């Protein structure tokens, strides 16, 4: 575990929680993985092209993960950045890319996904170079980790994963037709967490959600079990992040001492007490506004399907997913509640991270991060805040100190876009180049739909 994460856990009098909602993870993922094999639906793997030994991007605006530099040069060699700044001179023999009128940014980190199949290959096409997975097959995650350690991965996003989530027997996470271990009692908490860590979990994802927010009913962990799992995770120096479905669940997660909420809630307006306790507990939050929007009956990704900067790179299965929504009409969920919570948390200084919950209805890997950024700005974040939420902030809180910023020595995971996202956040969609570990990712286009 990174020393930054260790110090974060040790320095907190009472740790915190992250809340998330994901219904239909595996079903949607399997639908994408087994899309019909028409030409437009074939899912080619990203290809990284050979790169000159040293590359210099000149005359570009540079968002370095924290601030905007109006004009600078960025030099990278292989998979790492050599130099950044307005006075940097490209070395002799460097391949020169003129970034005039464009903005260079760190590769995006999607802080809430569910990865399977070729999700990581699809994500990198849209500039997501790291995914923080919140529930997947441990064998899938183990294989991806091994590849990341043994080779310079250039054709897909990097992966960190919670592996199997902690949920009650019959609770959320057990409905996908795939047997998973569940938590039977408080006394099983430590052995359950130890088993997840043995499988390779990078952090621990916990479910506190009885389905009532969406008109459903399923078992969930008791408050005592939730607190026991959080303690067990912290005993092993792992972050404990919590999926919640309501403001009541969010308060329970805070009371249990977790580190983050990996969803916000849309069942009620945020109370001052919720915000105050989030601050006291030093919570960080992944709102997942994209999936919350779809829960209200409005397909969050529909606008992406009609955006000329995104649409040509979508396959048919992704188009269908982006147009889909949850069957929760009439349950009283309102995106305005989640937007208000984001605004209140931001005003109070609570760290906000960008996450999509892909591939749930209304979302897809990679493309949906651009909608999430737009929704975060609509909820009161500045464009700089939103870009930070998708770069340096998740890198910092999850201890990924080799990425999330453009600085000497860090990874050459980079995105170059036309325009200025600090003035118009949707400019992130106008991608001209993606570099993954310093290699250019070839972005295929498909037939118009």
Structure description:
The structure is a single chain. With 449 residues, the protein is of the alpha/beta class. It is 30% helix and 18% strand. It contains 15 helices and 16 strands. The chain has helices at 3-11, 25-33, 119-125, 138-150, 189-199, 223-235, 247-256, 272-280, 289-295, 302-305, 316-322, 335-347, 368-378, 383-389, 392-397; strands at 47-49, 54-63, 68-77, 80-85, 95-98, 102-106, 108-113, 128-133, 158-161, 204-208, 240-244, 260-261, 284-285, 414-418, 431-436, 439-442. The strands form three sheets. Strands 1, 2, 3, 4, 5, 6, 14, 15 and 16 form a nine-stranded mixed β-sheet that branches. It is globular and about 65 Å long. The chain starts with a helix and ends in a 7-residue tail after the last strand. The model is unreliable at 1-42 (pLDDT under 50).
């Amino acid at each position: 575990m990174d020393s930054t994460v260790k110090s974060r856990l040790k320095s907190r009098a009472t740790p915190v929680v992250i809340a998330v909602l994901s219904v239909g993870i595996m079903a949607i993922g399997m639908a994408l993985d087994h899309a019909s094999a028409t030409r437009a639906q074939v899912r080619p793997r990203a290809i990284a092209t050979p790169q000159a030994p040293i590359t210099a991007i000149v005359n570009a605006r540079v968002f370095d993960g924290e601030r905007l530099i109006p004009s600078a040069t960025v030099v990278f060699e292989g998979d790492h950045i050599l130099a950044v700044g307005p006075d940097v001179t490209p070395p002799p023999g460097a391949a020169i890319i003129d970034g005039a009128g464009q903005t260079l940014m760190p590769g995006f980190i999607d802080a809430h996904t569910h990865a399977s199949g070729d999700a990581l290959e699809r994500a990198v096409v849209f500039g997501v170079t790291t995914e923080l997975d919140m529930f997947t097959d441990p064998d899938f995650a183990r294989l991806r980790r091994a590849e990341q350690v043994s080779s310079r991965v250039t054709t897909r996003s990097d992966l960190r994963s919670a592996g199997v989530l902690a949920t009650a027997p019959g609770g959320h996470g057990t409905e996908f037709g795939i047997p998973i271990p569940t938590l039977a009692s408080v006394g099983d908490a430590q052995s359950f967490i130890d088993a997840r860590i043995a499988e390779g979990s990078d952090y621990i994802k916990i479910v506190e959600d009885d389905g009532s927010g969406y008109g459903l009913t399923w078992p969930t962990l008791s408050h005592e079990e939730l607190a026991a799992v959080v303690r067990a995770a912290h005993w092993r120096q792992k972050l404990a992040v919590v999926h919640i479905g309501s403001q009541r669940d969010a308060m329970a997660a805070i009371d249990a001492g977790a580190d983050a909420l990996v969803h916000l809630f849309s069942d009620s307006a945020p109370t001052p007490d919720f915000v105050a306790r989030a601050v006291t507990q030093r919570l960080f939050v992944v709102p997942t506004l994209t999936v919350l929007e779809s829960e209200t009956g409005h397909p969050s990704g529909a606008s992406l399907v009609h955006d000329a900067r995104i649409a040509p790179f979508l396959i048919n299965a992704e188009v269908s997913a982006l147009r889909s929504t949850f069957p929760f009409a009439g349950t009283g969920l309102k995106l305005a509640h989640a937007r208000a919570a984001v605004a209140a948390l931001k005003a109070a200084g609570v760290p906000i991270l960008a996450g999509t919950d892909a591939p749930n209805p209304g979302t897809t890997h990679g493309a949906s991060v651009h909608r999430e950024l737009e929704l975060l700005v609509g909820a009161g974040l500045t464009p700089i805040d939103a870009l930070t939420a998708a770069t340096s902030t998740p890198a910092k809180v999850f201890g990924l100190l080799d990425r999330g910023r453009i600085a000497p020595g860090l990874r050459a995971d980079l995105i170059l876009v036309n325009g200025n996202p600090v003035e118009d956040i949707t400019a992130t969609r106008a991608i001209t180049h993606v570099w993954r570990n310093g290699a250019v990712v070839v972005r295929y286009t498909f037939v118009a739909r």
